[in-house]
């Protein structure tokens, strides 16, 4: 394959889909440039993504990245959190199995099902609060619904005290930014690490019926426990992933239905389902755009290129879901009636997202409740005027301004 210059990723994330298309133009796996001039590989082809995510030669452990060991990746690198956090997403083999087993205890089918009343309660409280909005007034649905819903659910599940929630969630919010300064990056690592350890210590002193208390207990089989680093990394992962990703899915689903009234009508009439909305949103607008990292453990030839040992790889989920090789010329269009909604937004293989069933349940409760409560809801700005989230890691908007009802008659 012809070698081409790496695409320099836009740290402001002004148009992640246009950028994914530029990356794909160089091939289903091609080189990109990250902050600090670091060159990596990005996968935007669906079939290649499945190969990479199921190939053990592409490891998750950052210790396979020589640039970290030799100091070429400094501790204040803007993406350093994705390298230093210690949890199941940065481990392989037996370590990955051990860490995944611990957290999986909190995401059994029974536990997820038992979460429904909590999700319904929080959803109704948020909708009741929104219902106080005067007719015609513009509200930010991301700030008032799409974010607080998953954030409150995950904080309740992990028993995060009300007064500690802002600190517990801040690390994940900063973590997805790709335009922070070196000082902000270094301070963020210290902040989330301290907040997570304080949460764990609180639950050791005052255990409850929550997932953090479950994590701090010794394993029932062999009595093993997570180290402090593993505990901090695991809590950071679960709180961040449990809030940031579903926030974007909910926001995109609402935006698409408000800008596709014909498809919204299909859902309301029962001709299409909310599951169709959820799956098509995940396909066409994956909540993660360029997710770090995997590392080649040896030279690997794939899709006509050679990824050298130690080179980092990102999964370009925003591009993978819109791969024209899978979804044809309409790959970039939102269409809940399409028969094939194949996507990889929850991952694939050993690292498939443990929280997928919970995210689905939250969406299946929240979306129909929102549209039933506010059937005349409309976007308050033109779709093209929505501001991007400001990162190439995530795919979202800074705000989702809507009118829940038309202005009152004068």
Automatic annotation (TrEMBL):
SUPFAM superfamilies: Cytochrome P450. InterPro entries: Cyt_P450, Cyt_P450_B, Cyt_P450_CS, Cyt_P450_sf. Coiled coil: none annotated. Keywords: Heme, Iron, Metal-binding, Monooxygenase, Oxidoreductase. Pfam families: p450. It comes from the Bacteria. Belongs to the cytochrome P450 family. PANTHER family: CYTOCHROME P450 YJIB-RELATED (PTHR46696:SF1), P450, PUTATIVE (EUROFUNG)-RELATED (PTHR46696). This is Cytochrome P450. The lineage of its organism: Bacteria, Bacillati, Actinomycetota, Actinomycetes, Streptosporangiales.
């Amino acid at each position: 394959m012809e070698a081409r210059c790496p695409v320099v990723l836009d740290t402001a994330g002004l148009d992640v889909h246009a950028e994914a298309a530029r990356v794909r133009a160089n091939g289903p796996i091609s080189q990109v440039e990250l902050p600090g001039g670091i060159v990596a590989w990005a996968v935007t082809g669906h079939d290649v993504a499945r190969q990479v995510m199921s190939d053990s030669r592409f490891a998750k452990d950052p210790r396979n990245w020589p640039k970290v060991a030799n100091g070429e990746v400094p501790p204040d690198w803007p993406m350093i959190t994705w390298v230093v956090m210690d949890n199941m997403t940065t481990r392989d083999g037996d370590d990955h199995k051990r860490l995944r087993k611990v957290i999986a205890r909190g995401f059994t089918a029974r536990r997820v099902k038992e979460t429904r009343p909590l999700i319904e309660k929080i959803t109704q409280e948020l909708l009741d609060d929104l219902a106080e909005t005067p007719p015609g007034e513009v509200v930010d649905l991301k700030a008032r619904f799409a974010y607080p819903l998953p954030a409150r659910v995950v904080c309740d599940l992990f028993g995060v005290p009300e007064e500690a929630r802002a600190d517990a969630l801040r690390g994940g919010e900063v973590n997805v930014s790709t335009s922070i300064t070196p000082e902000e990056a270094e301070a963020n690592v210290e902040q989330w690490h301290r907040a997570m350890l304080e949460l764990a210590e609180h639950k050791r002193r005052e255990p409850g019926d929550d997932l953090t208390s479950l994590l701090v207990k010794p394993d029932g089989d062999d009595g093993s426990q997570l180290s402090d680093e593993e505990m901090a990394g695991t809590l950071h992962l679960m709180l961040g992933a449990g809030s940031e990703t579903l926030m974007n899915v909910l926001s995109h689903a609402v935006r698409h239905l408000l800008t596709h009234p014909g498809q919204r009508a299909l859902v309301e009439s029962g001709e299409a389902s909310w599951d169709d909305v959820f799956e098509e949103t995940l396909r066409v607008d994956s909540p993660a755009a360029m997710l770090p990292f995997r590392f080649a453990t040896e030279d690997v030839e794939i899709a006509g290129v050679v990824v050298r040992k130690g080179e980092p790889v990102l999964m370009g989920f925003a591009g993978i879901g819109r791969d024209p090789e899978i979804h044809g010329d309409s790959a970039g269009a939102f269409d809940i009636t399409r028969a094939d909604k194949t996507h990889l937004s929850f991952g694939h293989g050993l690292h498939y997202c443990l929280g997928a069933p919970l995210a689905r349940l939250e969406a299946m409760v929240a979306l129909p409740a929102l549209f039933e409560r506010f059937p005349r809801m409309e976007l308050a700005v033109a779709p093209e005027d929505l501001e991007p989230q400001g990162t190439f890691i995530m795919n979202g908007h800074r705000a989702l301004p809507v009118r829940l009802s038309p202005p009152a008659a004068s």
